[in-house]
């Protein structure tokens, strides 16, 4: 039995260890090690996997239970429950069921600089890759659901007994919804963004976030022993030493969560048990790690007095620290992408952007534009295609020099356009600017270049509809009626004669940037792809709100003709309808993710409906309602 346990201990610490190394670690012969491992495999305590010439050994669940029972009398020995030390997470569980004496509404709805505490935390979590959220409600559940109705991927679970139970009962209510590792958040926590990022990326899958003692009078003290959680209590007299204070945010593995729920359901007699003490019970057998952040800016807001103190003292400090954190993030992108030192970065300024966040940066006296992708764009934009199309535009000298493009993250750096003047819907109507924009478009459309992808507006409609469903978004009414009319028009459009050419497909005025009086650039190729060139012309006309006269001049300059053929006029109108319909769906997706575009989406949807009544194409849409 002794040999068996010693070998299992070695495997539990390192599953990639060879039999020779096991022999060296245990002092046994290789023959003895081989014999015992075969016995362990036969008992179902261990299994092996071969990869080339190497063999890895893993402790099974039965083996872990065996070790647990054998160590029961040795309190200092704990089991590493995981064979995988780090795992990415995308889910947060927020406990928001309880009622505070000072508030007649949930603590998560406390306002922090015009925004509820829950909304602020969810936005920080989303920015750090947490896309799914489970919220356990109880007290005033409807108020919580209403406040967060526009957030995607939220599931509300009610603890109907929240008045008579503790936080462990609330956590157990979410058992059926939790299927993987997750972040556990208490609703009343205000915390700096960097702490969330550090906890998410911490190598330990079970990890308690702790900070230095605050002296608030309601602290949950923590003691660490041998690098792992040893004790949690609000009674400081129970401690040999205090290593920190529990913050109220933890990273929990699915395996440890399952143990917590099992222990709670089978053995617990106290309905008021809080989850941190159940976690401590599990920590008797398994390693529960910790992350201590010194000088952490955070607060728990349980009372009105705490809220006043936080807004007066803590939040101003937190804002300054978060501004520094975001600046450091930008600097890290530049250091990694350009191979420069942090001290080489001389200036960082916000630089606009509707979908993404752009910054004007100066590095070694040279100016560049850094693009950081917006929230949720990873599902809507193919970055590999964008990279190829951006490089093509740069080679054609339609766009500025591309310095760096990371197709996995979407981070892009390009050279700043000198003496830049970004067009807007008003300046785009000037004839001198129209000559520049049409010249750039003709150069692109007539280049003979072939983009690897096609921008299929109808395929995009299907794709965006699916994304809208995934984020529980809703379209404007009467969506189905308008969609049927658009699909009828599509059948007529596909019979028309035109060739696909390289197109930009997102011709807002702001994507044209002048440099001096006679040079213009076309930037941002997220939606680039082979398409009907009239799609680009229709897009620019729509986005700049061209009048009939503006559009006629624009088309004459592009066509180099005194007349605009009727088939071009029809294609223009059809492409306008397709675009207004498509981008109205896009807007609903973005708004479901928390962005606010005002009436933009509804305006485009209603304009598509008006265009469908135009006599030029009305004959093709047989069932438009009068």
Write structural notes for this entry:
The chain has 626 residues and is α+β, with helices and mostly antiparallel strands. It folds into 3 domains: 2-71, Orthogonal Bundle (Arc Repressor Mutant, subunit A), CATH 1.10.10; 91-210 and 247-302, Spore Coat Polysaccharide Biosynthesis Protein SpsA, Chain A, CATH 3.90.550; 422-618, Aminoglycoside 3'-phosphotransferase, Chain: A, domain 2, CATH 3.90.1200. The chain contains 20 helices and 25 strands. Strands 3, 6, 7, 8, 10, 11, 12, 13 and 14 form a 9-stranded mixed sheet that branches. Helix 6 links the parallel strand 6 (132-137) and strand 7 (154-158). Helix 13 crosses helix 17 (548-559) and helix 15 runs antiparallel to helix 18. The longest helix has 35 residues, at 304-338. It is elongated, with a radius of gyration of 30 Å. The N and C termini lie far apart (87 Å). The model is unreliable at 622-626 (pLDDT under 50).
What is the CATH H-level superfamily of the largest domain?
A: Aminoglycoside phosphotransferase (APH), C-terminal lobe
Report helical residue fraction.
40-55%
Roughly how many Å apart are the termini? 87 Å
Query: How many helices in DSSP terms?
Result: 20
Tell me the Rg in angstroms: 30 Å
**CATH top level of the largest domain?**
Alpha Beta
Percent of residues in beta strands: 15-25%
Question: Average pLDDT across residues?
Answer: 89
Secondary-structure class: alpha+beta
What would you say the CATH architecture of the largest domain is?
Alpha-Beta Complex
Q: What is the global morphology?
A: elongated
Unreliable parts: 622-626
Which sheet architecture does the biggest sheet show? 9 strands, mixed
The total domain count is 3
* Number of DSSP strand runs: 25
CATH topology of the largest domain: Aminoglycoside 3'-phosphotransferase, Chain: A, domain 2
Keywords: Transferase
Domain MobA-like NTP transferase: 92-212
GO cellular component, one term: cytoplasm
Protein name: Phosphotransferase
